[in-house]
Amino acid sequence: MSNRVHGLPFLPGTSFSDSTKTAFHRSQTLGYRNGYAVARRPTVGIGGDRLQVTPLSQAQLEELASKAPFLTYGPPKQAPPAEFIPAYVAFDKKVLKFDAYFQEDIPTSTEEHYRIRQVNIYYYLEDDSMSVIEPIVENSGIPQGKLIKRHCLPKNDVGDHYHWKDLNRGVDITIYGKTFRIVDCDQFTQAFLESQGIELNPPEKMALDPYTELRKQPLRKYVTPSDFDQLKRFLTFDKQVLRFYAIWDDTDSMFGECQNYVIHYYLMDDTVEIREVHERNDGRDPFPLLMNRQRIPKVLVENAKNFPQCVLEISDQEVLEWYTAKDFIVGKPLTILGRTFFIYDCDQFTRQFYKEKFGIPDLPRIDVSKPEPPPVKQELPPYNGYGLVEDSAQNCFALIPKPPKKDIKMLLSDNEVLRYLATLESPIPEDKDRRFIFSYFLATDMISIFEPPVRNSGIIGGKYLGRSRVAKPLSPVDSPVYYGPGDFFIGAVIEVFGHRFVIIDADEYVLKYMESHADQYSPEALASVQSHIRKGGAVAPDLGNKQAKEDPGVQELEALIHTMQKRLTGHPCQDKIREAFQVYDKEASGYVDRETFFKICDSLNVPVDDSVVKELIRLCCPEEDKIDYHNFVRAFSA
């Protein structure tokens, strides 16, 4: 029927449908690819009929190329804006999967030094979060599963997070201190990254865990033990033990020492035992056994280096050769468990056994005693300049320094002080009239310097130098030479810490001491003091200069002292008053406070209520709270 209708004109009212046609469906123009809606052009018409395509001629194609478009029905309408689709909707359930691994160090295992752990890294496109999952491996003994829960992983310290643009095959990423190596990804991840213009690196092979591969190897084959008669050997060599005396010299290492040991070799089962030799008060813990009784391997097989010796016992399969009795020879070193023992002697039974078994004659006894090293001479470090040399040296003798031992002359020369008057060598004119009192303490060989205050001089007097030992100039720092009594005489120059002083006067007690100890002084020094004392006598700290003679106050003081000397002649305290004041004047400054002054006078029955004595006390008081007892004591001397 279709052939007859095919030639009829298609006029209104004469058209009719093909009764033979049964399919009227239309072709799909939309499709989905990797989860995305993609438009496609249909290749067939309604009902599956092939579309009639009339190709355009070359002239029509050129006309269309050169023809300018124009509007036929007015201005075009603007297309409606595309509907906004949020990321959590567009990328819902869209996950990128990467295969990776990381290396974990195993410092506590003897079987494996590191471990390879395979993981899967998931990247969720809807919120840019990531998670790391480790597949569960059977009988691994490691807690596996979710290593890092799903969240945005930090990329650096600035605050950036990992993005899918940072992920690729053959790259390393660091997550919370662990470095993961990405080796491959699934098909969806590859298609997505390529659609976004990312060029993927070629895939890599997944690293294998060496211990897991080792477990896949076939089990070892065990060898049937030999038919050696252990019972016969036990009955023959029971209670027969070879005894060797050895030393372990570890003096080459830090805090090492030479220790003595006794090595027992049991013939019944070829086991060895090492015992420590303890002496009384040796300072070591009473732990007798260095090594328990056991067989000692001499040569191990090559693949037995990683054998867990601390857990399992070594068998014949791991050892090529064991230590036997022929390896223990007197005079030869022997290495057992990393320690080298030197065997120097054995007992009589051992000597007889070696003679009968191995044909070795009497084993010698080797002398291993070492001579005591010479005592090390203790050398002191160089002097640092702080304090006295003797005090600083005590820090090198003991952990808690003790004061140096005092000389016995402290008991013989206690409270004996030699006093001298000195001037200062200085180019400054103001220093020419300054006077200083040197006090030399015979008990400690120390020197103190006191400058008597002078009114209207512009110089504050008082203590110039406390008690200290003064070294001579150009003396060595480590062993300094200090000033002694023989260095003080009239005209001597004393240099104290860069200042030069000239001795111009001395006390009467100095002359008595020099005459009684003439062997300590040169004849010139003794003669200089004798001639000076005989000519002018001992003077006060500020007497003998021109200013003192012209001062009316000094003249009045001298008159009072002369009057008191006539009145107090033969007073009972005449011989004790000077020593009494020196006991309280520790610094030998020549001054005591008022309270101490009157306390001493009261103990010696000095008539302080006398008007002349009161006037003398007033003149001897240059300061309100201190009294110059030197001039006061002069009133009691003949």
TrEMBL record:
Cite the InterPro entries for this sequence: DM10_dom, EF-hand-dom_pair, EF_hand_dom, EFHC1/EFHC2/EFHB
Q: What SMART domains does the entry give?
A: DM10 (SM00676)
Domain of life, per lineage: Eukaryota
Is Repeat included in the keywords of this UniProt record?
Answer: yes
Q: What is its main location?
A: cytoplasm
Q: Quote the subunit structure annotation.
A: Microtubule inner protein component of sperm flagellar doublet microtubules. Interacts with the C-terminus of CACNA1E. Interacts with alpha-tubulin.
Q: Which UniProt keyword terms apply here?
A: Cell projection, Cilium, Cytoplasm, Cytoskeleton, Flagellum, Repeat
Residue ranges of every copy of the EF-hand domain listed in the record:
572-607
Protein name per Swiss-Prot or TrEMBL:
EF-hand domain-containing protein 1
Which gene is annotated as encoding this protein in its UniProt record?
A: Efhc1
Per the record, the GO terms for biological process are: flagellated sperm motility; mitotic cytokinesis; mitotic spindle organization
Q: Which PANTHER family match?
A: EF-HAND DOMAIN C-TERMINAL CONTAINING PROTEIN, EF-HAND DOMAIN-CONTAINING PROTEIN 1
Gene3D superfamilies hit by this protein = 2.30.29.170, EF-hand (1.10.238.10)
Location(s) in or outside the cell: Cytoplasm, Cytoskeleton, Flagellum axoneme; Cytoplasm, Cytoskeleton, Microtubule organizing center, Centrosome; Cytoplasm, Cytoskeleton, Spindle pole
Q: Name one Pfam family in it.
A: DM10_dom
Any one cellular component term from GO for this entry?
Answer: sperm flagellum
Task: Please provide, alphabetically and separated by semicolons, the GO molecular function terms listed in this UniProt record.
Answer: alpha-tubulin binding; calcium ion binding
Where in this chain does the record put each DM10 domain? 92-197, 238-358, 414-518
